[in-house]
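Researcher: Please translate sequence to structure tokens.
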Amino acid sequence: MVKALIVVTCALVLALGVVPLAQADDIKGTIVKIEQPAKVVVLDDGRMFQVKKETVFMIESKPVTFTQLQPGKVVVIQSGVPVQFKDGKYIIIEGAPSALPRSN
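Model: Translation complete:
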């Protein structure tokens, strides 16, 4: 009985320790613009994220698709690719700290 309790306690500690790591890359912001052809979402602080196959969007804690996004909505983006607009196209920012706002 004591061994079972120890095993369950260890399992809970390990499980709870993993949750914050999984959410470390979540990006939250208000959508100001959606570039459909480029599949880019622009947030109110200037950050821009391109959608990839693994990207997940959450609005009011519910998953939504890229086509359901609307300006003015607060969104959480998981696995978005940080980009910048340069010379008329979106360019991936290599090694960018995506959780930090862009400087103006």
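Researcher: Any highlights?
Model: Helices lie at 2-22.
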